[in-house]
Amino acid sequence: MGHGHSDRLAPGEYGAVFEQFEDLEQQNESYVVGMWAFLVTEVMFFGALFWMYSLYRWKHQPYWYEVHKELHIPMGGLNTVILLTSSFTMAMAVYYAQHRQKRAQLMCLGATIACACGFLVVKFFEYKEKIAHHLLPGANFQWHNDKVPAGVAELFFSLYFAMTGLHGLHVIIGILIIGTLAILVHRDSVFVKNDYIPTELIGLYWHFVDLVWIFLFPLFYLMPQ
Amino acid sequence: MAGKTHAHPTRFELGRNFFLLMVFMGITVFVAYFPVHAFSGPWNSFINNVIAMGIAVIKACLVIWFFMGVKYSSNLTKMYVVLGFGTFLLMFLSFIDYGTRRYEPVRGWEKQTPTALQRVRDNTPIENTGLGDPTP
Fold first, then answer.
1. Gap between the Cα atoms of A200 and A93, Å rounded
2. What is residue A119's three-state secondary structure?
3. Cα Dmax for chain A
4. Contact B64/A87, CB-based, under 8 Å?
């Protein structure tokens, strides 16, 4: 159901079984495992930042709780809802790719891109507000809360900008690759016509971006006392 | 692929998963605004953190299991997933180092003089190190 009809495809065509694989199932599994191997490297990439976050929060917990009040929970919450929704639409895009419903797949990909752009718009206004309040670490950093040393506040915002910034970069890359995929699907390109795997792999990437935000949201916005 | 009943998530599963994620999202925000007063003092914060992180882990598992289709993928893929996140958790073992720094320096681990001629005891001045006369 919904699988490439490899017996009807010419050898070497996308969606057919390439000669190094036993059958279509093994071929698809190899692709998915390869993508997961890449995602594991991404986990370690973000993992180092999560590790730093853990260390400095452990050392400065009361101060950090004080600094985190600068962040706007409704904005973070809205972004979480947007991103979870985009994950759902992406999963539906993969479903429709597997069931060869091109129009529905394109609509889901479009919805995913729209959500991703919405996420970036919210992030833009958040960043703009932080920069206006001189909370961007660097020469212009200003801190006026006497309860917290300026250095600790700057450390918090360094990690905030590094982690949300790296995540935002992944969102931008996601928009580009999902957009490229949508164009290929629209044109009936040979890469995606008989093969749902490209959609599935890009879906895996997009869900990973969602996973990172699932942890960033409670760690930065909902920090308990 | 013959013989396999649906090898992909169903639309119902995906929709249900989205609903569950939204429910957990609501719970985690609710709990953040209304602290749990099950314990007093530092335990309160601990319980709150455990709830916030626990919900995040549950949400992550839902995304991985249904949206990423790991439920329907091969055992090899599942192994990659488990080992990948497991390796990430292993990284936190390095906190053992940070947590035990206050035990440094350990008595008996002091730097020894680089000689085999005379062992230097605690609090004894270093005299004949066998390295020739000290420069005046």
1. 9
2. helix
3. 72
4. no
CA A7 to chain centre: 36
Taking contacts as CB-CB distances below 8 angstroms, the residues of chain B near A94 are 8, 69
SS (H, E, C) B56-97: HHHHHHHHHHHHCCHHHCCHHHHHHHHHHHHHHHHHHHHHHH
> Which two three-digit tokens encode residue A206?
């997009």
CB–CB of B28 and A222 under 8 A? Answer: yes
A71's CB contacts (< 8 A; 6+ apart) are: A160, A220, A221
Quick one: which H or E segment has residue A171? helix A150-186
- Give, for all 136 residues of chain B, the pLDDT tens digit: 443 445 789 999 999 999 999 999 999 998 887 766 555 666 667 777 888 899 999 999 999 999 999 999 999 999 999 999 999 999 999 998 888 888 877 777 766 655 556 555 555 555 544 444 444 4
Name residue B125's amino acid.
Answer: P
